[in-house]
Every structure is written in structure tokens, then in C-alpha cells.
Specification:
Order of helices and strands: EHEHEHEHEHEHHHHH
Helix content: 40-55%
Strand order of the largest sheet: 2-1-3-4-5-6
Distance between the termini: 39 Å
Number of helices: 10
Length: 215
Amino acid sequence: MIRVLLVDDQSIVREGLSSLLQTHPDLEVVGEAENGQIAIERSLSLQPDVVLMDIRMPIMDGVAAIRILQEQAPEIKILVLTTFDDDEYVTQAIAYGAQGYLLKDTPSAELAQAIRLLNKGYSQMGPGLLAKAMNNSSIQQKPDAIANIPAEFALLTTREKEVLQLIATGHSNKEIAVKLYITERTVKNHVNSILRSLDLRDRTQAAIFANSFRP
């Protein structure tokens, strides 16, 4: 049984999520919180496996709560579930220790599966969000990194950049498929497209290419 804490400032959202998750026998909602401060208190007392964390909330927002929770209870996994996909929110949430970032329009079955995978140790990012975190962190933290990025990188689509980043960190096609919610066949198609666009021989060269300008 995976124990889940729901954190959202809107009670109707918490009620909806609770009803949704309770339909899955392996997921148990153990508590709720309406802001980051209460989320920290209840996380420490209830010790959930996974916290579903909103970002914009009164008193204490989700980003601040993530930072404190990861300092005080690093064993608790945090999955951001929000309507906001701003580059800054995505980057800060991941930098402070969130293991995943999804938007509230994520299909219910995918959300449930994301919780299961997060509990097993897999990171979970909604479509396009990994590239946001990548691009924002590499450019904002190290402005001169722009000059080091090969021109060929611009030829890739957002999804191909996500796949390339995961190749660079040693992920297999199967692992990439899980993280990006796509099939292995689609991953293979993206890898082939990346190799063609960058004029590379294999994924080893692709990993070397990507690592050559990672900050």
C-alpha cells in the first residue's frame, strides 16, 4: 500500500483527488493539507510515502515546503501536481528535491501510475517539463553556457531534447519510456531522429555530445 498525502489550497481539488486515488486499491490517502506549512507538519507526523504537492498556496508555497521537507524527511518522495508550468517553478521544485512534476490535466490513470513509479524511485516529468528544467537551469545558473551549446542542438524538438538528456544520464530506452509516458517504440524513433539530426553514429556518441555542454 502506497500512503499519499494531498496538498492543495482548494478543498474541492483535494476531495476530487482523494476520490480518484481511493479507487486504486494500492493507494491510500492518509491526510490532506491546504498549504505548505501544514504539509510539513502532517508529513512529519503521518510519514506518507508520497506527497502530492501544489505550488501556489497561501502562508507557505509548495517550493518552500519541498525544500524544508527534503531537509527534514528526505525519505518522503514529492510529486508536484499543479496548473503552473512556469520555467522557474519547474526548475526550483526539482532543484529543491521534488522527484516529479506533473500538471493537473494529467489523465487519472497516468497520475496513479506516476505515484507508483515515484514510490519505486523513478522520476516523473510531464511532457515538455524536463526540457524546461534543463534549459532554465543550464542558462540561468551559467549564462555563458549558451555559447557552449552546439548549433545542432537547436535542430531537435523539445521531446528529442528530453530524450537526449536522459540518454546522457545513462537511461535505457525502457527507462526513458517510463519517465516520459511514451512507448519504447516511440523512444527508438526519437533516438533515430536525434542521431540523424546530429549526424551521430550511435547513442554513445549522443551521450558524449550531450555531456559536452552540460553545466
